[in-house]
């Protein structure tokens, strides 16, 4: 499987895009006219698609954990909002890649969550973490 690339940072290609098929791609506004008739306006969303990438667990095995040194790079990227938007390149389902312009999503919890796969103190660069990245497509 191909890697995922976020602003030049290489991530495991099998991070799970948990809201890929649950987010709506069509926006809708509803209102009532003065006569009480329902007026519905719909259009394809130009931006705002949610992209949540997650490490998953299957039994005792972890899929797509991230090393501490990579996690530190992600935290540096997230700490500088002036750099957004970032390019996110994801592997396509069958072949090729998909590319999105994204920013960190800050309204649905922390934009980056991480927990160690195996706690050790002090942590070293090769320690593995389960992560959740919350992003939003900006155009």
Characterize this entry briefly:
The chain is built from 1 helix and 13 strands; from the N terminus they run E-E-E-E-E-E-E-E-E-H-E-E-E-E. With 139 residues, it is mostly beta strands.
Give an overview of the whole structure.
With 139 residues, this protein is mainly beta. The chain has one domain. The chain has one helix and 13 strands; from the N terminus they run βββββββββαββββ. The strands form three sheets. Strands 1, 2, 3, 6, 9, 10, 11, 12 and 13 form a nine-stranded antiparallel sheet that branches. The longest helix has 11 residues, at 68-78. The radius of gyration is 18 Å and the shape is elongated. The two termini are 26 Å apart.
Key terms:
mainly beta, two-stranded antiparallel ribbon, 139 residues, 13 strands, 8% helix
Helix content: under 10%
Order of helices and strands: EEEEEEEEEHEEEE
Number of strands: 13
Q: Number of DSSP helices? A: 1
Binned strand content: over 45%
Average per-residue pLDDT, rounded, comes to 91
Gap between N and C termini, in Å?
A: 26 Å
Low-pLDDT residue intervals, each spanning 5 or more residues: none
Secondary-structure class: mainly beta
């Amino acid at each position: 499987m191909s890697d995922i690339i976020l602003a030049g940072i290489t991530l495991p290609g099998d991070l799970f895009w948990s809201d890929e098929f649950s987010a709506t791609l069509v926006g809708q506004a509803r209102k009532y006219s003065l006569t009480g008739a329902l007026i519905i306006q719909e259009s394809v969303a130009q931006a705002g698609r949610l992209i949540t990438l997650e490490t998953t667990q299957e039994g005792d095995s972890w899929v797509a954990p991230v090393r501490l040194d990579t996690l530190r790079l992600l935290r540096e990227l997230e700490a500088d909002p002036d750099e957004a938007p970032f390019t996110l390149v994801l592997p396509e389902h069958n072949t090729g890649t998909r590319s999105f312009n994204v920013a960190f999503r800050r309204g649905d919890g922390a934009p980056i969550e991480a927990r160690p796969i195996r706690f050790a103190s002090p942590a070293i660069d090769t320690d593995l973490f389960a992560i959740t990245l919350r992003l939003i497509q900006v155009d």
